[in-house]
């Protein structure tokens, strides 16, 4: 029954609008159309041909086929009755044209819009027109693809958001750790200055006491001399009061006492505090002494570039490969693929050098790296990828182009030397400046000291250190 009804509906469908006939008219070729559809079609094509077989019609206004109309109205009524319950509560489909209440069944791919089968169809004959269902299916697939792209982008933003959260938490740890280390360093300096202050105040007091004792000793001697001279003066004055005979009898003794052999008093030199010694260039002399406590490193490691496997010393001058990976944020600067760390200061001109103590560590790469090197993916440690270094693996030394480098004895310390303007990266044995290897290239961006550290294994040396240099 359903099949018969479907065939009947197809028979009663207009070939222009694809809907059930409304006021159908039949041409002499026996093809039937909605009256309004046919008239509209003729207006657009400017002829009276049949839309199906193209035969010219002899009638300008064909009469309505009432038999076909009655049958079409009857079927259309049953269709509305049958579909009323299924359409209850659903949103009415949007019509394409304000002139014809037609549900869209065709879609113009070229203009990306639905086509009115009555008034628009002939305007799209040269366009690609497909059924609405097919267009909807294709557009939904495209939209699904766009949705997938949006979802992927949202996931990327969520990952970046998560990384920023991790960076925020890590910054709090960095703040506390760095504050602690700054305070510790200044406490050392303050302790040194406090001890130096006390030492110099003590030296000042000791000099004051020593010179005070000297003055006291000299004053005691002076007082004794004054007392002795006062006694002699009194004796002579008494002698001068005697008469002739007594005076003459004691004159020689009195004269001997009056002619004292005591030398004139002399002030002791240097009796005052040597203020210049205590205050002269005080801050400079304290700074000179401070150099014994403070050291300068030509390279400081950048903890923000360090792989999670690497552990840096508090002063950021040494690094080792640990047994466990630290949970660090994946910020853009960080090396995540390899256990590497960069120096904090880059070079884009001039000459620079530093020494690295490697000891008997079995695996390391030491040299320079360009700023734009890939820090996240696969990257060979070679000039091709922007890394100029000296390798050490299992007692063998090689350069960045996989050539073996011969050394007289095992390297415990290496000097790395950069001449940026001449495009040279050189490696030397610092004890006698024996040349090990030089790579020549053209540098076009900033270069940073580079350290790639493997596991220490059974080696005594676990830390790779930048050698400290006196200021």
What secondary-structure arrangement, pairings included, does this model have?
Elements: H1 2-11, E1 24-26, E2 32-34, H2 35-45, H3 66-84, E3 106-108, E4 113-115, E5 129-131, H4 132-239, H5 244-258, H6 275-279, H7 282-290, E6 310-312, E7 318-321, E8 340-342, E9 351-357, E10 363-370, E11 387-393, E12 396-398, E13 413-419, E14 424-429, E15 434-440, E16 447-453, E17 464-466
Antiparallel strand pairs: 1-2, 3-4, 3-5, 6-7, 7-17, 8-16, 9-13, 9-17, 10-11, 10-16, 11-12, 13-14, 14-15
Helix pairs in contact: 4-5
Note the total helix count: 7
> What Rg is obtained from the alpha carbons, in whole angstroms?
54 Å
Identify the CATH class of the largest domain.
Mainly Beta
Using the alpha-carbon principal axes, give the shape.
Answer: elongated
Strand share of the residues?
Answer: 15-25%
Distance between the termini: 104 Å
**Helical percent range?**
25-40%
Q: What's the helix-strand series? A: HEEHHEEEHHHHEEEEEEEEEEEE
**Structural class designation:** alpha+beta
Q: Report mean pLDDT, rounded to a whole number.
A: 85
CATH superfamily of the largest domain: SPRY domain
| Second-tier CATH architecture of the largest domain | Sandwich
* Total beta strand runs: 17
Unreliable spans are 85-93
The name of the CATH topology of the largest domain is: Jelly Rolls
**Main sheet summary:** 7 strands, antiparallel
The strand order across the widest sheet is 6-7-17-9-13-14-15
Domain module tally: 3
């Amino acid at each position: 029954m359903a099949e018969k009804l479907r065939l009947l509906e197809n028979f009663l469908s207009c070939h222009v609008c694809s809907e059930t006939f409304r006021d159908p008219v039949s041409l002499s070729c026996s093809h039937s159309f909605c009256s309004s559809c046919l008239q509209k079609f003729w207006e657009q094509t400017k002829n009276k041909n049949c839309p199906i077989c193209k035969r010219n019609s002899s009638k300008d206004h064909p009469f309505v086929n009432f038999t076909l109309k009655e049958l079409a109205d009857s079927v259309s009524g049953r269709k509305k009755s049958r579909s009323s319950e299924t359409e209850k509560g659903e949103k009415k489909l949007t019509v394409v044209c304000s002139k014809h209440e037609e549900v869209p069944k065709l879609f113009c791919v070229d203009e990306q819009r639905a086509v009115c089968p009555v008034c628009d169809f002939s305007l799209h004959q040269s366009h690609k027109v497909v059924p609405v269902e097919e267009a909807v299916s294709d557009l939904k697939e495209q939209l699904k693809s766009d949705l997938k792209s949006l979802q992927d982008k949202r996931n990327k933003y969520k990952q970046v958001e998560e990384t920023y959260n991790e960076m925020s938490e890590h910054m709090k740890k960095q703040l506390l750790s760095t504050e602690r280390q700054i305070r510790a360093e200044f406490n050392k300096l303050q302790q040194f200055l406090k001890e130096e202050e006390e030492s110099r105040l003590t030296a000042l007091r000791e000099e004051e006491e020593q010179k005070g004792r000297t003055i006291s000793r000299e004053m005691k001697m002076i007082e004794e001399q004054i007392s002795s001279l006062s006694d002699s003066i009194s004796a002579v004055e008494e002698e001068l009061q005697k008469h002739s005979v007594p005076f003459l009898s004691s004159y020689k003794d009195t004269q001997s006492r009056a002619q004292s052999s005591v030398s004139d008093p002399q002030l002791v030199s240097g009796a005052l505090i040597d203020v210049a010694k205590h205050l002269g260039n005080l801050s400079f002399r304290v700074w000179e002494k401070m150099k014994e406590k403070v050291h300068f490193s030509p390279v400081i490691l950048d903890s923000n570039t360090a792989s999670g496997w690497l552990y840096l010393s508090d002063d950021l001058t040494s690094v080792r490969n640990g047994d466990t990976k630290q949970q660090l944020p994946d910020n853009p600067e960080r090396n995540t693929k390899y256990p590497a760390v960069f120096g904090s200061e880059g070079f884009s001109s001039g000459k620079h050098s530093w020494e690295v103590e490697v000891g008997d560590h079995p695996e390391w790469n030491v040299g320079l790296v360009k700023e734009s090197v890939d820090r996240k993916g696969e990257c060979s440690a070679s000039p091709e990828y922007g890394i100029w270094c000296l390798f050490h693996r299992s007692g063998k030394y090689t350069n960045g182009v996989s050539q073996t480098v011969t050394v007289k004895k095992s390297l415990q310390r290496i000097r790395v030397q950069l001449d940026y303007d001449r495009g040279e990266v050189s490696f030397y044995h610092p004890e006698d400046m024996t040349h090990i290897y030089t790579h020549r290239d053209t540098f076009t961006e900033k270069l940073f000291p580079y350290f790639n550290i493997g596991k220490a294994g059974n080696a005594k040396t676990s830390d790779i250190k930048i050698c400290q240099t006196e200021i």
